[in-house]
Amino acid sequence: MNLEISTPLPQLAQRLSATPRGARLARRLTASSLAEWGYSYDSEPNETAQLLVSELATNAVTHGRVPGRDFELRLALLPEADTLRVEVSDPRGDRPLKTLRAAPWDEHGRGLIVVDALARTWGVRERIVGKTVWAELPLTPEKRGGPGTP
User: Fold this and answer.
1) Fewer CB in 10 Å around end: N or C, the chain?
2) Which pLDDT does position 108 carry in this prediction?
3) pTM of this structure
4) What are the C-alpha distances in Å from 59 to residues 8, 38, 62, 92, 94?
């Protein structure tokens, strides 16, 4: 019998309405979760994570929406790698992700370019219903601040 006690990873899992309001809430939940985990609201890791989640949630709402179905946000802090894992799942599996190329005159299509620039690695995996777009964001130790840190 293993008597070792393990501490669960800091994480968040939340279903949100597939609306612009749900995408805004995903960004706010990300900001408050990272602040709770020691990355202040105005720190670079927190602001970068908010931007990353904003792009993925907006894509889920814009391209992955199925009427009457939510999207899901999952965040997990991986302390051994000093990494934030972000997962955004939507119910739409019939639409493959578009390429990472957008013409300069295109009004849309730059979200995944932003994700590619911010994330250490990212990808897509199929689900029974829909897909999950995931990304891993490096969190720099020297920029980490705890409660009460200036």
Assistant:
1) N
2) 63
3) 0.81
4) 30, 28, 5, 11, 14
The domain locations on the chain are: 11-143
Contacts of 62 (CB under 8 A, 6+ apart): none
d(CA 26, CA 39): 17
Spatial distance between the Cα atoms of 36 and 58, rounded to a whole number of angstroms: 24
Contact (CB, 8 A) for 72 and 57:
no
Q: Which of 126, 127, 97 is nearest to 113 (CA)?
A: 97
Mean pLDDT in order along the chain per 10 residues (150 residues): 63 94 97 94 95 94 86 92 93 67 63 88 90 91 45
Q: Enter the CATH code of domain 11-143.
A: 3.30.565.10
